[in-house]
Input
Amino acid sequence: MFKERIRSARVAAGLTLEEMGAALGLSHAAVQRFEKGTLVPSSAHLLGIARACNVRTEYFFRAESVQLRNIEFRKHAGFSKTLQDAAVMRVRDQVEKHMELISAFPTPPLPAFKRPSGPIQPITHYDETEALALTLRKKWNLGTAPIRDLTDTLESRGLIVVRVNIDHAGFSGLSALAVRDGSHPYPILAVSSRWPGDRQRSTLAHELGHLILEGKLATAIDHEKSCDRFAAAFLVPKPVVFQMLGRTRHALEWRELYCLKHEFGLSMLGWLMRARHCEIITEATYVRMIKEYKARGWKEAEPGKAVQTEVPQLFEQLVYRALAEQLISDAKAAELLGVPLLKFHKQRLMEWADDPAHQ
Output
């Protein structure tokens, strides 16, 4: 695993062989030999690799190996294959920590994720994805009220949710199945940390759609559009759209959509699209408002206060649970959380007086 870890760290950092060599004062051929296992890096070089890739040295000695399968990206065309590989490596790094932590428990601390049974016949119309989204909400006992914390809702149903720091406008998130040594696969949802909460929620719901709709769509139907429709219906079911907007409207107010955005965590654009999905407004009204939306520059950033981002909490909670049950050591807990041992001890004892982030 050692040589593979060196390559994974480099790819995740988005560095070429030449750039890594320059950071170490070596040739790209030497770095390539590290990655092939024909040359073992010295301690100094290993520290240099860790610094260049912004990882802790423990990463190179981690025994846990996880493969991500059935990867589905939510991205723009400008997000290149190189950047995709880097995103996958960063997600895999976090997932490996999750899997290592899970394996420390005598029985899995997460419930098994179960897809709802779908239609026998393949889905051929987007309205059917709406029905499936409503079925999932009923199965999860969510009712039709706003989902206040989507991340917590997903984690409590057996999904592993991670946030990745990728500062590229072309990446929103991805879904995958994490497989370790032939064990039962865990569904993974990853979201970029750079976006506001409403976009992150739409991304998570979209990627959930990939997991739910896998194998259920007819070949003629667009998978990405189906997942978009599923996501919107999952966040705001059709009965709620009618309740909030009415059955027929000749116009919508932008401030009205702004208020709904903050109540349900779905963007103004998302609400406009829901109004059209449910045929509350005509196509002409929808096109006119979309043009105005773009002309005002809201496609880049919607006006007013942003929806607060959601932060996964389950992983940290499980670390401290495993520590309390003496399943892991202090050093392992600090390693999993990615913090120095001294800082971990202060966090554990709630001693944050010198940490402005917790004052």
